[in-house]
Amino acid sequence: MPSSPAHPSAIRWAAAAGAILALAGCSATAPVAQTQSPVATPAQPSVTLAQPSVTLAQPSTTSSRTPTATATSKPSPTKTSTAPPTDRRTAAQRNRPFTVKGIPVVSKKHPINASYRRSSVTSPYGLTQETQLALTRMIVAARAKGVRLLVRSGYRSYSLQAQILSSKIREYGSETLARRYNAAPGRSEHQTGLAVDLWDGVTWGVGVRATKAGKWLWANAWRYGFILRYPNGKEKITGYAFEPWHYRYIGTKAAKAFGANSNLTLEEYLGIA
Ligand SMILES: [Zn+2]
Fold first, then answer.
1. Is 138 within a domain?
2. What is the number of structural domains in the chain?
3. What percent of the chain lies above the pLDDT cut of 90?
4. How far is the CA of 245 from the centre of ligand 1 (A)?
5. Would 86 be classed as within a structural domain?
6. Which residues are close to ligand 1, an ion, with C-beta < 5 A?
7. In contact, 157 and 118? CB cutoff 8 Å
8. Which of 217, 199, 216 is nearest to 208 (CA)?
9. How many of the other CB atoms lie within 10 Å of CB of 190?
C-alpha cells in the first residue's frame, strides 16, 4: 500500500488541479462536464462530422492502433517475443513515443520531448480522435447503467505539465512526494491525448476507487479500450502511485487482455516492466 500515506496529498492535488485546469484553458473541462448529459452529447457535435464514419470501423477493429491488437496474436516476426524491447531513442528522437506492439508508452522511463505532437486532436478535452470516440461510448454506456462519469482532465501540454509539477513541489514542500503523483514534462501520458482522468464530480483522490464511477470503470473500462494505468501496489513498475481515476486508451483488443478489475500494468503486459 505504498500509496496510502499520500492520500491527503491527492486531495490537495485535486484542489490545485482545478486551479491549474483553469489556467490551462482546460477549465471548460470540469465545468462543462459537471452537467453530466452535456458531457457526451453536446461536446461531440463539433467533432461528430468527421467521426461517424470512423466510429463504426473502430470499436471492433481498432484500426488506427491495430498493432495493439496484434499484440495478443504476436505477429511481430522480430525478436520481440523473447528479448524485452529496449528504448533506444536518442533525446532528439523523443519527439516520438517509445512504442511496443503498436502501443505508445510514455512514462518516467520513456519520456517524450517538447516537440512531440499528438495526432487527430479533438475537442473539448484534446484527446486523440480514437480516444475521444471510445470515451464517448464509455460515458454513454456508464450512464445507461446509472453511473455518472465526468472528465476531470484530458490532454495537458508539455509546458502545462512543467507548471503543474513545480507548483506541486512548492505546495508539498517535497519534491519526492510531488513526483509520486505528478509527472515531469515529457513523462505524462496526458501529453499524448490517450489518457483521461475520470470521476463522478463529487469524490476526488484515492476515494474515487470506492465510488460508483470508480468501481464501474475498473470493471468495465477495458470493454471500451481503456485500462487503469496506475494500479494499486504497482508503483515500482509504473513509476506512479495508485490513481483510480487515470485511464489510458490502448484499444479494445489489447484491453481485453486486462479484463475486469485488473491490476495488470501496461509495462507488464508489454514485457517492459
Ligand atoms: Zn491522469
1. yes
2. 1
3. 64
4. 7
5. no
6. 197, 246
7. no
8. 199
9. 25
Q: Residue 223 falls within a domain, yes or no?
A: yes
pTM: 0.71
The answer to whether the CB of 186 falls within 8 A of the CB of 114 is yes
Give residue 75 CA to ligand 1 midpoint distance, Å: 31
Look at residues 206, 159, 155 and name the one whose alpha carbon lies nearest to residue 184: 159
Residue 236 CA to ligand 1 center (angstroms) comes to: 17
Owner of C-alpha cell 490537495: 12
Q: What is the rounded CA–CA span in Å between residue 8 and residue 205? A: 8
Q: How many of the other CB atoms lie within 10 Å of CB of 5? A: 11
d(CA 152, CA 203): 11
pLDDT, position 45: 36
Percent residues over pLDDT 70 in the chain: 70
CATH of the domain at 160: 3.30.1380.10
Structural domain boundaries enclosing 111: 4-59+96-270
